[in-house]
Amino acid sequence: MDAPAAPPKPLFGRLLAWMGAEAPKLLASIVVLVLGFWIKDSVDLAIKQRQLDLSYTKEMQSLVQKLTEEEDLGKLKNTAVVLASFGEPALPALLMELRRTDLHAVAATRGLEALAVREPQTLCRLLPPLLLKRNQHYDIGAHRTLVGLIGDNGCTKALPQLRRYRDLVDAAVAGRPEALKRCIGGDIGAPAEAYPMLKQAVDEAIANLE
Fold first, then answer.
1. What region does 84 belong to: left with phi over 0, alpha with psi -120 to 50, or beta?
2. Domain boundaries of the chain, sorted by first residue
3. What is the pLDDT of residues 115-163, one digit of tens each?
4. Which of 154, 170, 171, 167 lies closest to 205, judged by CA?
């Protein structure tokens, strides 16, 4: 009986056998070609990302300059809202403007409200600690703004900080403002009105979050 015929070799195996010693060279060339395309695509992608980052940076710088120099309230608000569209990177500039006591603080509030729509979690993470810092960067009006933003955006994790802050405000209402003053900058012209207004804002924020 004749021995069964051996199964035919796979096409790839027959091709390698036919090519002989040239096969490894061909495979190496294919690998180099594929790697070359992959590396080129990666480099092109990195360059494009870098160009995009630079474009964003320049645009943000332009908006920040407008925000600090403009004196028309409508234009200031529009600039603050556009700046807020950049998300968390816009927060330092908006907070710097909030420290001012003129129309820039009003515009900064609008920008922070816009940022809250886009990234509420960012405000919930970064705003509450500002209330208790003893840096006196923000006046009492800015503190009311910060409290309102925290209360209006579901920052439930900020409740412990708000309650500690309320203790300071309660003490100020009761005639012991020393601890609160270490956290608030600027002169408080009418404390008999300013402290109760701040207390009301804090109570409302806590009620919203509980």
1. alpha
2. 60-118, 127-210
3. 999 899 999 999 999 999 988 889 999 999 999 999 999 999 999 999 9
4. 154
- The second-level CATH assignment, the architecture, of 60-118 is Alpha Horseshoe (1.25)
**H-helix segments, the chain:** 11-19, 23-69, 73-84, 91-98, 103-118, 120-126, 128-132, 140-152, 159-173, 178-181, 191-209
Q: Amino acid letter at 176? A: R
DSSP secondary structure code for residue 90 in this structure: G
What is the C-alpha to C-alpha distance for residues 89 and 80, in angstroms, rounded to an integer? 13
Rounded CA gap, 44 and 21, in Å?
A: 36
| Location of structure tokens 């209402």 | 173
Residues 6 or more apart in contact with residue 116 via CB below 8 angstroms: 123, 149, 152, 153
Residue 184 to residue 133: CA distance in whole angstroms: 9
Other C-beta atoms within 10 Å of 28: how many? Answer: 10
End-to-end Cα separation, the chain, in angstroms = 91
